[in-house]
């Protein structure tokens, strides 16, 4: 019987047989509650470099947009611009906010609002009629009694017949003849007046309409008085063109629906007796086409500095300050403050002239708002360089660089705020895509492919004014199969990206959707000329890049030159110089090495041992450090190279 050796026993203990409580290296997956999953989705720490790159891209686009505003600053935002200050001030203070009842079960509300015609000349005629109504409520009730009667009819055709009946009474003589016939009197009948092939009135010329035939004699006499008062109310109006404008008023009552007719009648009957209040109501109705007593609120709670600053010189100064703020935000200086100020400034531009607002402004506002939430200046910024300097300076005061400081200098620390802001951009982007895709399904042109063709040949957007583009389109449509395949492919491609994209972006197909979405926006930018809008959408897509992808692309390779900066630790001036070198050394090419006091410091030491000082060391650092070439043009300024040398090599 053989005996096991100690080595065999140790081997069996190190590698136990499968099935006998073997423990593998894969860790156990700890179950997470729904709350933990929700929290980790929104508040997971992320590398801030991605958000910082979004800041730079957005800042450059925002800077370009506002630089373009500089050329037409007064036309856009001036007191007498395209949308003058007096109009926007009235809009922000008086514009009506109308809401439907809270508990209407999603049914059409039966409550109407007094509205006038959208055509200016017809609206002017209606306003002359409204302003000429008696101030006394009783007299106004008497003049409008006829409208009260006929607007109560359930059959809209009867209302039109009754209004047309009054419209036929062109003169007071005809009025009396019509009313005599209405009350059963004898009127000498004349031949019917024919306009074209249609008689001017119903049946015989003065015969009352059938809707009044069932009334009793007393009711007909009452009706005649109501018609007479209404006719004279129309006759009292100081018309410019009596016949035409009187027709406009009656036609408006005909064309309006039952609810709107009743609302307008209620508005006229409830006008206040006070002349000032009545004129205020009529002015509001004429400008906003709604009864101010029916609105939920007036005005909008919006802010813009251009509401208050209208002097051209002051506007130019403020606009210049905004451009400086945007530049500081782009390079990442004082980002926590400049991000808020830039967002407020851009919103001020948007609120001042909302008539030119379109998708570009919306996307710009979204990005700036989320960049304001996250610490977008924690990487790729001047704030990051300042933080590197302060961390190095504090560590040197403590006696040298510790592990925590070295880790901080190596990479920006992950940030919950950056992850939260990046997640907000991602989710908002998905909602934008889903809304755009589903709204396209509501249009028939997207079902049969005509939508893409309309984009392809729209002369306002596309390159159709170029002969090569026109010839290419003509050549494509000369082959019918190619034409149909092109339209169907473009439509399905767009719908797939916009509807399936919000779901596939959270899967392993994320890279495919990012590529297809970028391609789609590039095509739209070329075909429709919406360059800035599409660039901002592509910037939003950057939020879906995996963590550290952008950071790794900005890192230098392993072949970067390496140096050692030798300095004397107790000397404060040399420690300050070492901290500045560590701040601009974003790839950690220079190792800070304290040396003994016997050596003449500071100096730069190459890997092969060459020692460099003063001008020579400055030149090598400027040509070797990856961030330093951005500062090399500054060395051309007279005296700056000598000043920098004195700062790096203090006496």
Helix percent band? 55-70%
Tell me the total number of β-strands: 8
Main sheet characteristics: 4 strands, mixed
Count of alpha and pi helical runs: 30
Q: Biggest sheet, strands in spatial order?
A: 6-5-7-8
In total, the number of domains comes to: 4
Distance between the termini: 86 Å
- Structural class comes to mainly alpha
Low-confidence parts: 1-24, 191-203
Backbone shape: elongated
Strand content: under 5%
* Radius of gyration of CA atoms, rounded to a whole number: 39 Å
What number is the mean pLDDT?
Answer: 85
What would your notes on this structure say?
There is one protein chain. The protein is mainly alpha-helical and 651 residues long. It folds into four domains: 128 residues, no CATH class; 179 residues, no CATH class; 116 residues, no CATH class; 93 residues, 3-Layer(aba) Sandwich (Glutaredoxin). The strands form three sheets. It has a four-stranded mixed beta sheet with strand order 6-5-7-8. Strands 1-4 form a two-stranded antiparallel ribbon. Strand 7 and strand 8 form a beta hairpin. Helix 10 runs antiparallel to helix 11. The longest helix has 26 residues. The N and C termini lie far apart (86 Å).
Could you provide a short overview of the structure?
The protein is mainly alpha-helical. It is built from 30 helices and eight strands. It folds into four domains: 52-70 and 308-416, no CATH class; 120-298, no CATH class; 437-552, no CATH class; 556-648, 3-Layer(aba) Sandwich (Glutaredoxin), CATH 3.40.30.
